[in-house]
């Protein structure tokens, strides 16, 4: 689901995100692609739900604390709220919705991922992989908070390019 969400972001949602500086252009894009816009954000909600499930599964496999999953659950609530606002699309609420998903939700998801990663015994390669991945997650939140949307887009691409295979890798490793 996260891979699907990344593709949807790149090919459907990006033209109406803050990476496009002209608010009128973003709004016009949503109005002319409303169904695709709404389906795209629904896919992101499904991806967030699958992420929460993955974190719960990961926590159970390694016997970690429930606290990081509670953080991720809080992130899911923020994500679902923000993406529901984006589905409804009121241009005046979109900036807040992007901060809610990019800063709050992503920040909590990243904190959960870091916590679970630190609870594992990993090789040097796994530690480097996870460090770069979680650094990209942190950069996504910081870039969104500071309005550096191109950097946020790059951080998102790096995060998803590393996280999607990480999920598969852990599924095999922790069987």
Q: Count the helices. How many?
A: 7
Oligomer: single chain
What share of residues is helical? over 70%
Classify the beta-strand content into a percent band. Answer: under 5%
Number of strands: 0
Overall average pLDDT: 97
Radius of gyration: 16 Å
Order of helices and strands: HHHHHHH
Q: Unreliable segments (pLDDT under 50, ≥5 consecutive)?
A: none
Number of domains: 1
- Content-based structural category: mainly alpha
Taking the sheet with the most strands, its summary is:
none
Tell the overall outline. elongated
Amino- and carboxy-terminal Cα gap: 20 Å
Tell me what you see in this structure.
The structure is a single chain. By secondary structure, the protein is mostly helical. The chain has one domain (about 1-175). The protein contains seven helices and no strands. The protein has helices spanning about 1-15, 25-30, 35-60, 65-90, 95-120, 125-145, 150-175. Helix 3 (about 35-60) packs parallel to helix 5 (about 95-120). The chain is elongated and about 50 Å long. The mean pLDDT is about 95.
Please tag this protein with its features.
elongated; 83% helix; 175 residues
Task: Summarize, please.
This protein has 175 residues and is mostly helical. The protein contains 7 helices and no strands.
